[in-house]
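Data deposition worksheet. Section B asks for the primary sequence of the deposited chain exactly as it was used as input, without tags or linkers unless they were present during the calculation. Section C holds the resulting structure in token form. Section D is free text for depositor observations; keep each observation to a single sentence. Incomplete worksheets are returned to the depositor.
Section A, Depositor: J.P.
Section B:
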Amino acid sequence: MQPITARGSRFVERWSNSEYMNAKLGAALVAVVAVCLGLSAALVYMAVVPRPVYYIPRPWEAGVALPQSMPQAAVASFVSSWVLNWSNFTPATVHDVYGRAQRFMSPVLLGQTQARLGKDIDQVKRDNVSSLFSMTGDPLVAVEKTGFRVTVQGDKGIYMGKDQIRTEHTTYRVRVRRVNPTDTNPYGLMIEEIDQESAS
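Section C:
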């Protein structure tokens, strides 16, 4: 009778161990399924919800914007870069400077200024004129119905050869509007109008 009792006790022990292992495997399976469901939900969320677009409007200031938005800091940075390019030239660089500026002009503005730009380039090369402009403050951005109006102020020095002719405090008022980004204009902004006022 004792051998039979020993066999029965070993059977019960093995059966209890198998039940314990099955319980552990079941808990592990439930955990794996929960993790898979969580990852699937995260993937669906990333695919459906628009992701933020990071930009750096200035070297010292970073920001975040949602798709299709146009922060005023980005507009100010765009116009500042355009004005600095437009107003800093030498006889050797004036052709390239105006060529870069024309990429961001509207067709109407380009048609109004193209003939005059050609004459300005000829005069700059003939008289050996250079322009040096530096901003004296942050641009001011005003929101309009069709876009933005940005005011940029600074000091401009006009040179003939190595001799400085005059120094002017210059104010640029630039009107820009949003357009669809292209390979030649990835910023999605276009210059529609530019006014310049100078005071000695």
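Section D:
The helical segments are 2-48, 72-87, 94-102, 107-127.
Residues 2-48 form the longest helix (47 residues).
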